[in-house]
């Protein structure tokens, strides 16, 4: 703990050196320890070390709070400063608002975002490499091999992979929990925390929103706000990727000894397998 605290103090000192003595710097939390809040008189900034170059394009399109400046440190680290806006994360009910569907649609249809992420992220999420990842998990995790539910899920993925390919891929956020949707006091909606963004099937994002936040009776309505009609093929693809998400979640929870989270992922996986069976997906 002492080493961790000393490292954190060193990081804050480095950031303070950029801004000067007039600024108060506080860690913003998070697992990486790379984000900070900075305040001086009436000025406030959100700082982050080694953000992706993708941030500039997101800022230009109004998807994240405005990028103010970018500076490179002597050690090679890059620090970005964004507007620090008064606001709040969306709650579960607010995730059903049409603005969420509209912003996600804007992201998925942006050729500028796609071009930039393809330059940064060389690999695209495909059905083949997704299934290969799950296969790798099974081969190296004893707990996974012993579960009949996980075996059933894997065989389902294997049997449906020929149905998954699509003609067009988009920028997917891949971490659409409600804490990453920020509503400013002026009513502006932002989607933050792009560390997991990948190029792939839009069904990866759509499925997470629908399954986690939208009542099933309203799925067609939400897809209308997004600008898409529901289809059997969309349901097949989104459930396929949702099942992969739960398997990955189980593997991570087991590795981290987080029993409650593992149980939650198992329950969600069981529900998904019932849905694909009931809906003949």
Automatic annotation (TrEMBL):
<dbReference type="Pfam" id="PF01636">
    <property type="entry name" value="APH"/>
</dbReference>
<protein>
    <submittedName>
        <fullName>Phosphotransferase</fullName>
    </submittedName>
</protein>
<dbReference type="InterPro" id="IPR002575">
    <property type="entry name" value="Aminoglycoside_PTrfase"/>
</dbReference>
<dbReference type="InterPro" id="IPR011009">
    <property type="entry name" value="Kinase-like_dom_sf"/>
</dbReference>
<feature type="domain" description="Aminoglycoside phosphotransferase">
    <location>
        <begin position="27"/>
        <end position="237"/>
    </location>
</feature>
<dbReference type="InterPro" id="IPR052077">
    <property type="entry name" value="CcrZ_PhaseVar_Mediator"/>
</dbReference>
């Amino acid at each position: 703990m002492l080493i961790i605290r000393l490292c954190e103090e060193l990081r804050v000192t480095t950031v303070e050196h950029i801004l000067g003595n007039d600024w108060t710097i506080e860690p913003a939390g998070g697992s990486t320890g790379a984000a900070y809040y900075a305040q001086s008189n009436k000025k406030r900034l959100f700082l982050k070390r080694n953000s992706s170059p993708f941030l500039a394009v997101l800022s230009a399109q109004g998807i994240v709070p405005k990028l103010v400046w970018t500076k490179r440190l002597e050690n090679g680290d890059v620090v970005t400063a964004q507007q620090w806006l008064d606001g709040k994360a969306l709650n579960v009910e607010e995730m059903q608002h049409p603005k969420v569907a509209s912003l996600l649609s804007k992201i998925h249809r942006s050729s500028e975002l796609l071009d930039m992420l393809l330059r940064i992220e060389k690999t695209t999420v495909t059905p083949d490499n997704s299934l290969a990842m799950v296969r790798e998990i099974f081969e190296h995790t004893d707990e996974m091999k012993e579960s009949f539910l996980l075996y059933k899920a894997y065989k389902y993925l294997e049997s449906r992979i020929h149905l998954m390919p699509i003609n067009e891929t988009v920028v997917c956020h891949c971490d659409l929990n409600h804490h990453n949707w920020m509503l400013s006091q002026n009513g502006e909606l932002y989607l933050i925390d792009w560390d997991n963004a990948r190029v792939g099937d839009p069904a990866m994002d759509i499925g997470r929103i629908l399954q986690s936040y939208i009542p099933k009776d309203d799925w067609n309505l939400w897809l209308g706000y997004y600008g898409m009609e529901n289809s059997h093929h969309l349901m097949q693809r989104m459930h396929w990727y949702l099942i992969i998400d739960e398997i990955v979640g189980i593997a991570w929870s087991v590795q981290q000894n987080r029993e409650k989270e593992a149980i939650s992922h198992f329950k969600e996986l069981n529900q998904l397998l019932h849905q694909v069976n009931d809906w003949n997906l």
